[in-house]
Structures are given as structure tokens and as C-alpha cells.
């Protein structure tokens, strides 16, 4: 189980490190929140406090888009070079929303031209779109997986077991060797309230999940059980430092 950390201030870092160490957790994503926050610097500072941390650096291409494609490539190239020099070995590369003309597919082409220096490259896939949008999503997924260095596909957050199962089948139909992970919302009240008031693009969580503690816990246990059976790694979404939420989802995982 991996944990998706959103660091909004320098003071978040020691607090996150202390909580993760207390719970014996080491696998973390550092999310890319905006242009102003240097998430690579955040990853380095977290690693200083947690040398054992297994860090995935989340890179949203939209935060690097400049007036021209060449300038955008230059901005991304500098980040990739810095990350490689700092010993970051795993990158989650996404377009970001709204998707710009220069997007994740251009970023993958750039990585290839640079002679990819990372051990693992993660990309995303959303199995919850309507059929028309899903056709485009499948085309983009196939293009992402055409790059051999893309090792992991992270599915979008959701609790529809049928769509998750179809998503897993689709990924494996393109690349049976690709690893699969999936974003999971912590089912605690604080996280559900945040997602209800600040819905994420492409996330389709039912109101029953967002409004009912028992239903949220049961739905989370169900998808974690599916992921265990299908060898899918959960990536737990954290909006802020939330010890109660972390302990709750770990309790659910232990109980399935």
C-alpha cells in the first residue's frame, strides 16, 4: 500500500514523516499541486527525514507548459535531470487537468529521447468515463503502454467493482506485464467531506460513499479485496495530515 501525500507547506514534511514512521509506512507519492510548489524539493526533504522512504514523484505536465513546445520540453527536461541527479527513481507522469496541447504523451516522448534514467514510470488510466470518452482513454492507454519503460498504470479512484475489473482486464490486454495500481480514497469522514466539497476531475464516487460511514467502509474493503485478488497495489489518497484516516484504512486492510 502506497500513500499519496499532498504537501502544501514546509511544516507538513516533519509531521508526515513522523506519522508514517510511527505506523511503519514507507511507500509514498509526492503529488504535484501547482506551479509554485517545488515537489522535488519536498521529496528530497522528506527523504532526509525518512531515508528508507520509497518515493514516487508526481509530475503534472500542465504545470510546465510554456509559450512554446520547446520551452515546455526544456522545463520538463530540467526537472527530469534534477530528479535523476537527486536519486529519485520513480516518476508518475500525468497530463493534469485541463489537458494542454503538450501533455503526458509528449512527456513520454521526451523521456525516451533523453534515454529514460528512471527505474519506474507510472501513468494513469480512468476506467470510469462514459463509453465515448472511454474509447479515447483506451487509445491513450495503448500509446502510453507502447513505451517499454512505462512499468505501472495507476487507475483513477472509484468503487465500482465492475468498472475496476474491466479496467484491469483492459490494461492487461495491452501489456500483460504491466503492473497496476489504483487510487483509493480514505473512507474517513474528513476525506469524504473534502471530496464532496472539492470533487476531483474524473472521480465518480457515489453519494452513498461520500455520506455514509458504513457504506464507505464496506466499499473500501470490497475494492481492497479485489485489488488483493488481482495483484493491484492501492495508492491511498490523503488530502492532509490525517492520522485517524490512515489508521482506519490500515484497519480495513488488515480485516479483509
By CATH reckoning, the class would read: Alpha Beta
What would the principal axes of the Cα set say about the shape?
A: globular
Largest sheet: 8 strands, parallel, barrel
User: Please, how many domains?
Assistant: 1
C-alpha Rg, in Å? 18 Å
Largest beta sheet: strand ordering: 1-2-3-4-5-6-7-8
Structural class: alpha/beta
Order of SSEs = EHEHEHEHEHEHEHHHEH
CATH topology: TIM Barrel
- Please mark out the parts with pLDDT under 50 across 5 or more consecutive residues, or reply none: none
What percent of the residues sit in helical stretches (DSSP H or I)? 40-55%
According to DSSP, the number of beta strands is 8
N-to-C CA distance: 14 Å
Keywords: Oxidoreductase
InterPro entries: FAD-linked_oxidoreductase-like
GO molecular function: oxidoreductase activity
Write structural notes for this entry.
With 256 residues, the protein is of the alpha/beta class. It has one domain (2-255): TIM Barrel. Helices cover 48% and strands 18% of the residues. It has helices spanning 12-22, 39-49, 69-85, 104-113, 131-145, 161-174, 189-197, 207-211, 213-230, 243-255, and strands spanning 2-5, 27-30, 54-60, 90-94, 120-125, 150-155, 179-185, 232-237. Strands 1-2-3-4-5-6-7-8 form an eight-stranded parallel β-barrel, surrounded by five helices. Strand 3, helix 3 and strand 4 (90-94) form a beta-alpha-beta unit. It is globular. The protein starts with a strand and ends with a helix. The model has no long low-confidence stretch (mean pLDDT 94).
Amino acid at each position: 500500500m502506497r500513500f499519496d501525500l499532498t504537501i502544501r507547506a514546509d511544516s507538513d514534511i516533519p509531521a508526515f514523516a513522523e506519522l508514517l514512521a510511527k505506523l511503519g509506512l514507507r511507500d509514498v507519492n509526492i503529488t504535484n499541486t501547482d506551479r509554485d510548489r517545488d515537489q522535488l524539493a519536498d521529496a528530497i526533504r522528506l527523504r532526509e527525514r525518512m531515508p528508507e522512504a520509497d518515493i514516487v514523484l508526481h509530475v503534472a505536465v500542465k504545470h510546465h507548459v510554456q509559450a512554446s513546445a520547446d520551452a515546455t520540453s526544456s522545463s520538463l527536461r530540467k526537472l527530469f535531470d534534477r530528479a535523476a541527479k537527486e536519486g529519485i527513481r520513480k516518476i508518475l507522469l500525468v497530463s493534469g487537468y485541463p489537458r494542454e496541447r503538450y501533455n503526458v504523451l509528449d512527456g513520454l516522448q521526451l523521456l525516451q529521447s533523453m534515454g529514460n534514467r528512471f527505474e519506474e514510470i507510472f501513468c494513469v488510466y480512468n476506467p470510469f468515463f462514459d463509453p465515448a470518452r472511454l474509447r479515447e482513454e483506451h487509445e491513450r492507454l495503448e500509446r502510453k503502454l507502447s513505451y517499454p519503460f512505462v512499468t505501472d498504470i495507476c487507475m483513477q479512484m472509484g468503487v465500482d467493482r465492475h468498472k475496476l475489473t474491466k479496467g484491469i482486464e483492459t490494461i492487461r490486454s495491452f501489456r500483460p506485464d504491466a503492473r497496476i495500481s489504483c487510487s483509493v480514497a480514505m473512507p474517513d469522514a474528513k476525506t469524504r467531506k473534502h471530496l464532496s466539497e472539492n470533487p476531483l476531475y474524473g472521480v465518480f464516487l457515489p453519494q452513498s460513499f461520500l455520506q455514509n460511514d458504513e457504506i464507505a467502509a464496506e466499499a473500501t474493503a470490497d475494492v481492497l479485496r479485489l485489488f488483493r485478488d488481482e495483484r493491484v497495489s492501492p495508492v491511498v489518497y490523503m488530502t492532509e495530515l490525517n492520522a485517524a484516516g490512515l489508521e482506519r484504512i490500515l484497519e480495513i486492510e488488515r480485516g479483509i
